[in-house]
Specification:
Blueprint lengths: L24 E5 L2 E6 L2 E6 L8 E3 L7 H12 L7 E3 L5 H4 L2 H8 L3 E3 L4 H4 L16 H5 L14 E3 L5 E2 L2 E8 L8 E5 L4 E5 L10 H6 L15 H13 L4 E4 L5 E2 H13 L1 H4 L10
Parallel strand pairs: 4-5, 5-6, 6-7, 11-12
Antiparallel strand pairs: 1-2, 2-3, 3-4, 8-9, 9-10, 10-11, 12-13
Helix pairs in contact: 7-8
Bound molecules: zinc ion (ZN) (2 copies).
């Protein structure tokens, strides 16, 4: 396969951010495994007995070795996913993807509207360090923002809502945080992989990111550019009444805590999630 077409943005680098959860793995369900890379989660979906599984999101820059080690620990030596599904293309969700694609030689899928940001054609709007929030918002000016180019290795998710290699999941378009953001949902047991459509730890406080204090929150503020769409996406997910959720940042959550927290976020989105000021707040 033509490897030379794969490249990260020129500003991709190791980001020295961490949390108490870094390196921690949680088996949320027998076929749902969540692992925290510094401050972001990756998900391995599939039963370890069957050896067929999918990786959702690809962690922080320079962490491919960790992701491969976690995968082999869960599924056995030399195991590899059937595909990598991206909830969106922010640097903390595609950080290790090129090394992973080269190592595993597997297809990558993302929403059609996210493709320009994954094929070097468009860059996300700059993160907003002036947004209401704490230290992480201010640090966001240093986050990588140049588009990654996965060339022909990334393909659009099927238009019918199915998720390749995950028979019982469907993808749901949840824009706002990014234009082509998706969440994955399984109706059978109402399992949700939400990406950054909402998160379970506030991303603007360095202290809360580090301690991972549970708080069902809106999408990370410094990166979210369409708050009306973000509100609609949260309401769409709340209406599904998920029983279990893994979000892009923060611990997995289930049951009453999830239902109540998500319903409240949907109801009071403007007060809870939307910053009072910032360049993307109308
Ligand atoms: Zn994001
Ligand atoms: Zn994120």
């Amino acid at each position: 396969m033509p490897k030379e077409e794969l490249r990260y943005g020129e500003d991709y680098k190791f980001i020295p951010a961490t949390s108490v959860a870094s390196g921690v793995s949680i088996e949320v369900l027998p076929d749902l495994y969540c692992h925290t890379i510094q401050i972001v989660n990756i998900c391995l979906v599939g039963n370890p007995d069957k050896k067929e599984f999918v990786l959702v999101d690809a962690g922080m820059p320079k962490t491919a070795d960790d992701i491969i080690a976690v995968t082999e620990k869960r599924f056995g030596a030399n195991s590899r996913p059937q595909a990598i599904i991206l909830t969106h293309g922010h640097f903390d969700h595609v950080g290790a993807i090129i090394e992973l694609v080269k190592h595993w030689n597997v297809p990558v899928y993302a929403h059609e509207a996210e493709m320009p940001y994954l094929t070097g054609k468009a860059r996300y709007p700059e993160p907003d360090p002036s947004v209401e929030g704490g230290m992480v918002a201010k640090m966001s000016a240093f986050f990588p923002n140049e588009p990654i180019d996965l060339g022909g290795h990334v393909q659009p998710l099927p238009g019918d809502g199915t998720v390749p290699h995950l028979e019982d999941f469907r993808w749901i378009h949840t824009p706002g945080h990014t234009p082509g953001h998706v969440s994955l949902f399984r109706d059978r047991d109402r399992t949700l992989i939400a990406g950054d459509a909402f998160v379970t730890v506030r991303q603007d406080s360095l202290y809360k990111v580090f301690t991972q204090e549970m708080e069902i929150s809106g999408p990370p503020r410094y990166y979210t550019t369409d708050w009306n769409a973000a509100r609609e996406s949260v309401r769409k997910l709340a209406a599904l009444q998920p029983e279990t959720a893994i979000t892009g940042h923060g611990a997995p959550v289930s049951g009453e805590k999830l239902r109540e927290g998500l319903a409240k976020l949907a109801r009071e989105f403007d007060q809870i999630a939307m910053p009072d000021y910032g360049k993307y707040v109308q």
